[in-house]
């Protein structure tokens, strides 16, 4: 895999099934939402998507401080016990996504695509690469050169990781998703080894640019790039 995920626009267009641009979708901006409430919202939307009661949906939000542990469940990558995390005001969840330990907090844009892959090629790996591509293109809009790293999920700028990725599927409908570090406090990653890496590997858009980055601007860019990469077109609705 190249440093730009799927590569050029032509690469993505070739991989997009005919007629995909006519599919409806929606973007839900949920603001700052506790992890448990967001998980409930995801599961409700997965059920609705399976019943064709809603279109493909992208949830965009921030979480209060929380550590999640994915299917790998390597507790060695927790630098504090769940009890110690909670004592610091950090929630803890064991969940069904792929991957290992992840930290979420304010200043990090979290995205949960609830997409039916029966309309997107029925290829989980290709889906993950497309998510990475949308994030790489988002970073490019802020003059940051993101890249995918062969054998590792997520997006990197240089040798630092700026976005994490972990997904699950239920009968071809995706849930869980990505976390893009916009201006999150990097010191907060010290409570874990993020997906097996040392905490110092993490970076943010603000740290790289040397200035604050508006979350609203990043949110808009992410939605636009998902529309491009997944063939939804530029038309979208922001709902709450």
Features:
240 residues; alpha/beta; BirA Bifunctional Protein, domain 2; eight-stranded mixed β-sheet; three-stranded mixed β-sheet; globular; disordered N terminus
- Counted by DSSP, the helix tally is 6
In the predicted model, the low-confidence regions spanning at least 5 consecutive residues are: 1-21
Element-by-element helix/strand order:
HEHEEHEEEHEEEEHHE
Under CATH, the homologous superfamily reads Bira Bifunctional Protein, Domain 2
How much of the sequence is in beta strands? 25-35%
Structural class label: alpha/beta
Percent helix, as a range, is: 25-40%
**Mean model confidence by pLDDT:** 87
CATH level 1 class label = Alpha Beta
Which fold name corresponds to the CATH topology?
A: BirA Bifunctional Protein, domain 2
Q: Based on the structure given, which CATH architecture is correct?
A: 2-Layer Sandwich
What's the number of domains?
1
**Given the C-alpha coordinates, what overall shape results?**
globular
Please give the number of β-strands.
11
| Largest sheet, spatial ordering of strands | 7-8-9-10-6-2-1-11
Q: What's the gyration radius in Å?
A: 17 Å
Walkthrough of the structure:
It is a single chain. By secondary structure, the chain is an alpha/beta fold. The chain has a single domain, classed as Bira Bifunctional Protein, Domain 2 (BirA Bifunctional Protein, domain 2, 2-Layer Sandwich). It has helices at 9-15, 35-50, 82-87, 124-140, 205-209, 215-230, and strands at residues 25-32, 56-62, 66-69, 91-94, 101-104, 108-114, 146-149, 152-157, 160-170, 173-181, 238-239. Helix 3 links the parallel strand 3 (66-69) and strand 4. The model is unreliable at 1-21 (pLDDT under 50).
């Amino acid at each position: 895999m190249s440093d730009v995920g799927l590569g050029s626009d032509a690469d993505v267009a070739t991989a997009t099934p005919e007629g995909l641009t006519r599919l409806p979708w929606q973007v839900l901006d949920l603001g700052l939402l506790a992890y448990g409430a967001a998980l409930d919202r995801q599961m409700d939307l997965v059920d609705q998507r399976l019943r064709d009661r809603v279109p493909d949906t992208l949830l965009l939000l921030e979480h209060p401080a929380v550590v999640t542990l994915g299917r790998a469940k390597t507790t060695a990558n927790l630098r504090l016990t769940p009890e110690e995390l909670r004592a610091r005001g950090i929630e803890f969840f064991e969940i069904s996504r792929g991957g290992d330990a992840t930290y979420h907090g304010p200043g990090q844009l979290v995205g949960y695509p609830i997409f039916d892959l029966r309309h997107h090629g029925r290829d989980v790996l290709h889906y993950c690469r497309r998510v990475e591509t949308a994030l790489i293109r988002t970073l490019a809009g802020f003059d940051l050169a993101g890249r995918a790293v062969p054998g590792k999920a997520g997006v990197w700028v240089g040798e630092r990781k700026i976005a994490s990725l972990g997904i699950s599927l239920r009968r071809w409908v995706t849930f869980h998703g990505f976390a893009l570090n916009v201006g999150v406090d990097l010191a907060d990653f010290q409570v874990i080894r993020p997906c097996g890496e040392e905490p110092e590997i993490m970076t943010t858009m603000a740290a790289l640019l040397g200035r604050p980055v508006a979350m609203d601007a990043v949110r808009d860019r992410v939605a636009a790039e998902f529309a491009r990469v997944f063939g939804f077109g530029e038309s979208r609705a922001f709902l709450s």
